[in-house]
Write a structure and sequence with these properties.
The chain is about 65% helix and about 5% strand. It has helices spanning about 1-40, 60-95, 100-120, 125-145, 145-150, 175-180, 200-220, 225-230, 235-260, 285-305, 310-315; strands at about 155, 160-165. It has a two-stranded antiparallel ribbon. The longest helix has about 40 residues, at about 1-40.
Length: about 325
């Protein structure tokens, strides 16, 4: 009798243990399902990193994406224009040959040609984020163009032109400066070449142009297909038209602002004997790159905030 009671008691203990284990497993499964649901909801929210406040969710729609996309597209074309507007001034300021200055423009196309296939293949997911990252890269490229102006300025000393940091920029060739400052130079101390040493910044300009092409490829490659995915076929043509208008307005703003700033001297001083029509005049070429670079970074921030699974929310026009 005692042995039977012990067996029955052990059986009950085993059943209780099995029930406890099954209950814990069910709880873990429920917790896992809740976590997966929470993660799924989080992946559909608009935000940056782990921050997705509720007020940002009002922008989590296809129409708002298109508005931010158009802004970035306009800034993209405006930024591209800055090279064309200021290339002749850069060539004169840094004594670049026509071959070197033309390669700066070609560097943009080379970068696009090399990267377009890789971006089209490897950046299929989270297209809004990749487009935003590309615009940020383009903005960095624009700011890189200003590095030579900030890092290398020149000052006039008894020994000639000496590169310094944050000094007053005296543009033009050394021969022109010598002829204008005979009291400080003699015939033996006048340098024989212009600011040829400044051509070392040529590679900085090439790097900036390469970043222009790398950053501009995602918006041109991923943008139109993504619009096809989030808008109905009957209405996507209208958005293509607006997109085309932005591609025209961008260069207009770029040429207008860049040309306007070239009327001001490079350091915003008023040099005697020089005016915008003078051959030695160097306009404020760097201001356009600063403005377009900052605008590119700011316009890209809303794009990178769109959720990874944004396409699931936008199968139809909201």
């Amino acid at each position: 009798m005692g042995l039977g009671r012990v067996r029955r008691r052990s059986y009950k203990l085993q059943e209780a243990e099995e029930m406890r284990r099954s209950f814990l497993e069910e709880e873990e499964e429920e917790d896992g399902s809740l976590n997966s649901v929470d993660k799924e909801k989080q992946s559909l929210r608009c935000g940056l990193l782990n921050l997705s406040p509720n007020f940002l969710q009002r922008f989590n729609s296809a129409r708002w994406f298109f508005a931010f996309f158009c802004l970035a597209f306009l800034v993209h074309h405006m930024t591209n224009t800055m090279i064309s507007v200021n290339l002749s001034t850069i060539e004169k300021r840094f004594d670049l040959s026509s071959t070197k200055s033309s390669f700066i423009i070609n560097a943009y196309d080379i970068s696009c040609a090399v990267t377009v296939m890789f971006i089209s293949h490897f950046c299929k997911n989270s297209k809004p984020k990749w487009i935003g990252i590309g615009i940020i890269v383009m903005g960095i490229g624009a700011l890189i163009f200003t590095v030579p102006h900030v890092a290398e300025t020149v000052t006039l000393t008894d020994e000639g032109l000496t590169p310094i940091s944050h000094g007053r920029l005296i543009p033009g060739s050394d021969s022109a400066i010598c002829s204008a400052t005979n009291e400080l130079y003699n015939s033996t101390n006048c340098p024989s070449e212009g600011l040829g040493s400044s051509s070392k910044w040529y590679f900085i300009f090439v790097i900036g142009a390469l970043l222009f092409g790398l950053g501009g490829t995602p918006i041109n490659t991923l943008g139109p297909p993504f619009l096809d995915e989030i808008f109905p076929p009957t209405k996507v043509t209208v958005f293509y038209g607006v997109m085309g208008s932005m591609s025209c307005l961008g260069p207009i703003f770029g040429f207008a602002f860049g040309g306007f700033m070239l009327k001001y001297y490079v350091d915003f001083s008023e040099p005697e004997g020089l005016h915008p029509g003078s051959s030695e005049w160097i306009g404020a070429w760097w201001t356009g790159f600063i403005l377009s670079g900052i605008m590119a970074v700011l316009s890209a921030i809303p794009l990178i905030m769109f959720p990874r699974n944004f396409l699931r929310l936008t199968r139809s026009l909201p």
